[in-house]
Amino acid sequence: MPDPLDPRLARALDAFTVPELPTDFTDRVAARAAALAAEPPLPRRRVSAPRRWWRAGATGLATIAVGVVSISAAAMGYLGEPLSHVLHRTPVLGAALEHVLPERRPVHRLVVHRPVVLRPAPPAPALLPGSDQQPLADHPFARRAFARLRALPPEQRREWLDAHPRLAERLRERRAERHAARAGIVLPEEPGIVSRPLLRERLIERRERLRERWLARRAQGLVQP
Amino acid sequence: MAATHPIPAPDEAPDDALMRRVAARDGAAFRALVARHAALPHRIAWRMLGEAAEAEDVAQDALLRLWQHAPRWRGDGPGVAAWLTRVATNLCLDRLRRRRPLPVEDVPERVDDAPLADAVLEAGEDLARVRRALDCLSERQRAAIVLTHYEELPNAEAALVLDMNIKAFESLLLRARRSLRSLLLEDVDA
Fold first, then answer.
1. CB B112 within 8 Å of CB A23
2. Which residues from B are below 8 Å from A28, CB to CB?
3. Same structural domain for residues A147 and A76?
4. How many domains does chain A have?
5. Where along chain B do its domains lie?
6. Residue B177 in 3-state DSSP?
7. Chain B residues with CB-CB distance to A under 8 A?
8. Which comes out higher in pLDDT, residue A176 or B21?
9. Is residue A47 classed as helix, strand or coil in its secondary structure?
């Protein structure tokens, strides 16, 4: 509910007075009303006889045209095969249609398939299970095992790693790979094989490089000792 | 012996009785209704349109519609005054929406004995200021002020006249009052 009108605003609005209606206003309105009542109602629109016949003829012709087009379309199968089938089976209409639009019957064609050429399968990687060359991380068992391992509590994870030394080693390698990638060290691309000594060597080199740079900056006084 | 029911004089008969007689095309009954209610659409139209000729046109149009509508009149409806309020308000809103200058040849030749709009405006500076302030409002805001303040309709009835729900109408009225306050009172306060 809006606030009540401000009394000062109400007083200001009250200044807008309305003059009286003219004295003859009632007479004028009554006269207009009487004139309205005296007006004859509008005549009904009449349609002449020839026009009526023309309209009926046009309607009939249009109906016949639409019917012929519909039957033709149905017989040609445009409205679906079942309807065409029914039309051609209708006793009199079917015989007449057969002369004009013969029924399209399904043609059984011999389908000759191309001979299938069997291509030789791509050679499988010559990696034997258990060998050092096997890319363990790509092996489905290894991927599932890693996923299960990540979900285990720490103690069970440690026990599991003790029981699976090869996978544990592979995990350590993966971790080292990730660290190397984060540090920007490019390792030789040998899928499945990570040279740990090489990695350690690169990491030591990087650490030395960083230390030298830091010492140089400290000598220049750019960093606090 | 059949009892005789004297037909009440048109000036004293209730609106519904008069409307039944108007439906039977009784000119005297219609004249009584016009005399009783003509001021209502005229007041609304005058305050919404601000012009004597247009206000008279609207009042006459509304009353003639009442004459034409009489055969379909239902006695259990809101009454003649409410009906005329609604019709006059809608006629004014229509005119405000398609307002254009009246061509000179369309001005009636009859001498208008109502005071000229200019004379009325010059009669008081306050009146002119209110007119200018109302002109600044939108059509519906103006109608909300006219119906609630000048015609003293409750908000619910005014909302019905404008075909709005009550919440929307109250919001409209609030905005209209706020605009008027800033237009009329802030100048004075300053």
1. no
2. 60
3. no
4. 2
5. 13-100, 124-190
6. helix
7. 25, 27, 30-31, 34-35, 38-39, 42-43, 46-47, 52, 56, 59-60, 63-64, 67-68, 112-115, 120, 124, 126-127, 129-131, 134, 145, 149-150, 155, 170, 173-174, 177, 180-181, 184-185, 188
8. B21
9. coil
Confidence of residue B142 (pLDDT cuts 50, 70, 90): very high
Residues A93, A165 within the same domain: no
User: pLDDT by residue (tens digit) across B101-141?
Assistant: 544 444 444 445 555 555 555 556 778 888 888 888 999 99
* Torsion angle (degrees, nearest 10) of CA B26, B27, B33, B35: -160
Residue A73 domain boundaries: 68-102
Fold of B124-190: Arc Repressor Mutant, subunit A (1.10.10)
Taking the C-alpha atoms of residue B113 and residue B101, their distance in angstroms, rounded to an integer, is: 22
Q: Does A22 touch chain B (CB under 8 A)?
A: yes
Mutate to test the interface with A, among B19, B34, B141 (most CBs of A within 10 A): B34
> What mean pLDDT, rounded, does chain B reach?
82
What is the per-residue pLDDT for A93? 76
Q: Is B14 helix (H, G, I), strand (E, B) or coil?
A: coil
Amino acid at B42: H
Top-tier CATH class for B13-100: mainly alpha
Q: Which chain B positions have a beta carbon within 8 Å of A30's beta carbon?
A: 27, 30-31, 34
Contact (CB<8Å) A18/B42: yes
- CA dist A136 → A126, A148, A158, A163, A167 (Å): 14, 15, 19, 16, 8
Query: Is residue A62 domain-resident?
Result: no
Which residue is it, tokens 């029914």?
A: A86
Amino acid at B68: Q
**Does A188 fall in a domain?**
yes
For the segment A163-217, what is each residue's pLDDT rounded down to a tens digit? 888 778 877 877 877 777 777 666 555 555 556 677 788 888 889 999 999 988 8
**Contact present, A13 and B176 (Cβ < 8 Å):** no
Backbone φ, ψ for residue A186 (5° rounding): -95, 120
Does residue A161 contact residue A168 with C-beta atoms inside 8 Å?
yes
In a domain, A157, yes or no: yes
